[in-house]
Amino acid sequence: MEQDINDSSMVKPSQRKEVSNPIYVGREDDIKKLQRTRVAVHERKVVIFYHGGKFYALDCRCYHAGGPLHLGEIEDINGQPCVICPWHHYKITLNTGEGLYQAINPKEPSAVPKWKSKGAKQRTHRVTVDNGNVYVTLSDLTDSKDSDYYAEKYKTEKIAEK
Ligand code: FES
Looking at ligand 1, which residue's alpha carbon is closest to its atom 3? Predict the structure, then answer.
């Protein structure tokens, strides 16, 4: 399969090892208290949520048009915790980065809308906790996701000091 050499989301083989290194992002207690925080992991802006006793990490900018997910509300939808993008209210699962939407079968006007998935649109990353320290490991960036475009666009965005 051919790949576009201008695709900025691509990672050269020599960089893969580096981006797969876990990066320390803060103390477990602090992030639990904050319930969300924005961090830079190998220059990529990532939002970490602490919700329902679990940590989640996603690209910070929404796959639709770059909305700031760190400002979104968290809701449980269809049994899955989701962040609601503050710009156009897209729903994104915290665990898998799937875009959810409600669908109605027009041939059944009385049917109740059902939640459906558009697939994994937002890149998620791995969070690990070791001895009270929280680390994020970026996912495999060679597998492209819709949120990569905005991750690159907002790469130089400043994150306020805590
Ligand atoms: S930018 Fe997130 S829903 Fe449009």
Answer: 88
